[in-house]
Amino acid sequence: MSRGNKSSDKTIELSVQDKNINAIRASLKAIPIIGTPLEQLFYGKLDHLRWLRFEQTLKEISDQLKSSDIPESKKNKGDR
Length: 80
Description:
- By secondary structure, the chain is mainly α.
- It has a domain at 16-68.
- Helices cover 60% and strands 0% of the residues.
- It has two helices and no strands.
- It starts with 15 loop residues before the first helix and ends in a 13-residue tail after the last helix.
């Protein structure tokens, strides 16, 4: 795994399903007047659930870091 500003050879690709969902969402938004509300109706809950999973993951990482045995002097404070 690379660190810092080094570029990585690994890229993350969207799956076919993700590309299809993106195309559908874009198509819904293109419908004048009702497209954006329809897109929110169909996909708003999914976006909310995705955000909640992301927050939970960050909380779990934070809890693991807090309970780790890393000495305070070794923790990265973001000072560069």
